[in-house]
Hints:
The structure holds 2 protein chains of 2 kinds.
Chain A: H1 2-42, H2 46-61, H3 64-74, H4 84-110, H5 113-121, H6 126-141, H7 143-156, H8 168-179, H9 183-211
Helix pairs in contact in A: 1-2, 1-4, 1-7, 1-8, 2-4, 3-4, 4-6, 4-7, 7-9, 8-9
Chain B: H1 2-7, H2 28-58, H3 64-67, H4 73-109, H5 113-128, H6 131-141, H7 151-177, H8 180-188, H9 193-224, H10 235-245, H11 250-279
Amino acid sequence: MVEVIQHHLGALFAGLGTSLQIAGIAVLGAFVVGSIIAICRISPIGPLRAAGLVYVEIFRNIPVMSLIILVVYALPQLNIRFGFMRSVLVALILVGGSFVCEALRSGVNAVGSGQIEAGRAIGLGFGELLRLVVLPQAFRTVVQPLVTVVIGIFLSSSLAGVVGVMDLAQAANQINTLDALGLSVYIVAAVLYVAVALAIAWVGGRIERAVRILR
Amino acid sequence: MSAVGASVPRVRQSSHMSAGSLFDAPGPRGRRVVLVVTIASVLLIVAAIAAAVHRLSVTGQLDASRWQLFGEPAIRLYLLKALGRTLLAAGGAALIGLPLGVVLAVMRLSRNRIVHVLGVCLVEFFRAVPLLLIIYIFFFALPKYGINPDLFWKLTIPIGLCAGATLAEVFRAGVLAVPHGQREAAAAIGLLEGQTFRIVLFPQAVRLVVPSIVAQVVILLKDTTLGYAVSYSELQNSAQLLTAIQPLSLVQTYFVVSVVYVLINVAISQAASYLDRRWQAGRHTDRFATIQ
Lengths: 215, 292
């Protein structure tokens, strides 16, 4: 049993690599999209606020599975093709972006109104106020929610297997069909997932402690 | 109280306190800038919508013939039944997840070290493993050991396990949020630890976390879409079967199904935040929002 697992360890780690790659790119994309939408949602421009709200309500409430299926099977009918891997990335970035946006916005809301009033009182404009007063404080309070989002994106990357991307969960599945190993291969895969998720949580905890505001 | 209140001069609240407090009421120049950017963003949004509609129409997706099937009673009934199975799966998962969440929370809060550590491990494991992998285990691994329940349970038990782990954290946060004096008062009148939890802490904790639990239903509903991966005929999977028979309406079918999910989830989220506002007790929602 152990030898068989060892024999397949390469395939499992290749799957893990794919999962990490998907999650890594999706997290970066989600942070960019989420920041842009968050700025829209707190901006003085009414239509941008409305558009940001609609974006968040749609992508926070659509199941990732449904969105992946839309991107993979429906968009090609409109002559928009991404390929499987990139389709999954698009879906994860769109959904992840909405969660990043809400995390950032909650951080902005958590900045004391006295801070904002003080900034305005010394004559800072909207951009300066965000850059110098609000965002530096907001980012520190949202480390934990953002870590939750990052782990969520990583776990959701397992859905890539449903559209034929050979990620970790799918690699485990394939090995199981080849060699009928039963539980053991899934347990190895599960341990790898847990290890990565706990590592993300650990790094997040370190970052949070490093940037925490001591009041 | 009212006499004191009356003596305090009333401070006029700024007209825009929430999002508006980030910027002053703009002056003439600021108003011009806002106006220009507003017009530009409206144009941009309209252009984006127009481009999407144009793309849909040149590829023939807006043709009435492709949408007709949603007018047919048989198709509607088919999709409604599928939605019913989605709700049934979510309900079954909730039936497993809620009691499991309570048990795991109690384990985690236990003073017995072994029980506590076991609780922590179970919660962390099921929160850190993708639901799909557990579903695969129930479908492809456990049957070899003679564990082979119905298709329905092979989908709902994994969803319930993952939901239970998340709910455990919600319940735990609720128990910890009950004011300290309650526990001390219970101890003072001689209640045992179990009694304190059952009679004093738990009922109050549940009331604190109801909005968060309602918000969790959104995640349950989303999780049922994994039925697609294992051919349990909930809404998403039924949509796929429909597209196999009606390939011309593929875009429309998946679109309609996604809209249904979004509308239901928006309604649930609204209900949760309504409860939240009414009970003023929801500081847990954000922490447990996950994208699954």
